[in-house]
Task: structure prediction
Amino acid sequence: MAKSISCKDAGKDCNWSASAKSVEELMSQVTEHVLAEHKEIELNSENIASIKSLIKEN
Ligand SMILES: [Zn+2]
Result:
C-alpha cells in the first residue's frame, strides 16, 4: 500500500504529485513542495489536517 497526494486534488493549478510508503514520508515531501511552490499556504495544524485528508491509498 502506498500513500499518494496531488496538488490537483487540493484544487491547485499545479501538476505536482507524490507518493510514499508512509504518511510521515509523504508529509515531508508535501512540506518541501509547499515551502518551495505554495508559500501562501501556511503549514498550521488546520491546513496540515486538511492536506492529510487528501491522501489516497493505492
Ligand atoms: Zn503544488
The longest helix spans residues 23-37. Residues 3-57 form one domain. The radius of gyration is 10 Å. The first strand starts at residue 3 and ends at 6.
